[in-house]
Amino acid sequence: MSVKTKMAITAALYLGCLHAAHAETVLNVATAGDQNMVDYVKTWLGPKFEATHPGVKVQVVGTGPGDAGSNKIVEKLTAQAQSSAKSWDIDVAVVHQAAGGQLVEKGLLENYRQAVKTGTMTTAENAKNALGVNVDGYVMPMFLSQTAMAYNSDLITTPPKSYDELVQWSEKNPKAFGYNGIKNGMSGVSFVVGWIYAYGTPAERLTALPYDKGVEKEWGPAWTKLKAFNKNVTFTPGNAGTLDMLSRGEIAMGPVWVDMFYSWKDQGKLPPSIKL
């Protein structure tokens, strides 16, 4: 079952990071997300960039999973902007959509269409609108990573196809469903956002228009329903933790990042019985 949400990870270009490179140039990349995001830049994206830009070294640091990781980047750039020294040490920031909008609203990003001659090649809709904020010219969608339901096919022959069916399944199979809540990684946040889409406010309203706190008054029944649902689940320690517990048979189903799922599959870390 595909969860009814996807969190685009937004690459925000900061202060002309892609100007003509010269010898011994260091490109500092700060990325929110789990360790897989750091590894992605360190082992794949960075080396490819270095190969096409001789004399440039890509240096990456992770700021942590979930919204907290993105918020650390927002907080650091805000503090640097307010400093009299105006000293910057982040060239490229990889953040979640909500933080991308905040960075633009705070004036902390440079317009890459002016700084990079290939900037006009970015034409996707989600490069213009980040959860209701006009970010045109300031962010690039890095990839659309989706959250999907992973399950043990040895134990589950017909997985739930909706939140309603999942609720019914979890009542019959207490503690067999696991997710990482809203503080230990974005797959859990994604699951809860999808829950709000299903039982609170439609996705179309929350993803395309500016945020209005007034919609939250509709969420009371959704939170009550989620609290009851949580009594029958197992909370996992993180994005990787959900996959780890699935691989060891400690849970039978849970939301996972699709890219992380296939990476673990390729590395032989998941048994063949675990499917999406």
Characterization of this structure:
- 39% of the residues lie in helices and 24% in strands.
- Residues 1-23 have low confidence and may be disordered.
- It has 2 domains: 2-144, D-Maltodextrin-Binding Protein, domain 2 (3-Layer(aba) Sandwich), CATH 3.40.190.10; 147-275, 3-Layer(aba) Sandwich (D-Maltodextrin-Binding Protein, domain 2).
- α2 (66-82) runs parallel beside α3 and α6 crosses α8.
- The chain contains 10 helices and 11 strands.
What is the secondary structure topology, with strand pairs?
Layout: E1 2-13, E2 25-32, H1 35-52, E3 56-64, H2 66-82, E4 92-96, H3 97-105, H4 112-115, E5 129-130, E6 133-134, E7 139-152, H5 163-172, E8 177-179, H6 186-199, H7 203-208, H8 220-230, E9 233-235, H9 239-247, E10 253-257, H10 258-266, E11 274-275
Parallel strand pairs: 2-3, 2-4, 8-9
Antiparallel strand pairs: 1-4, 1-7, 5-6, 7-10, 7-11
Helix pairs in contact: 2-3, 6-8
Any descriptors?
single chain; 276 residues; alpha/beta; D-Maltodextrin-Binding Protein, domain 2; seven-stranded mixed sheet; two-stranded antiparallel ribbon; 10 helices; 39% helix; 24% strand; globular; disordered N terminus
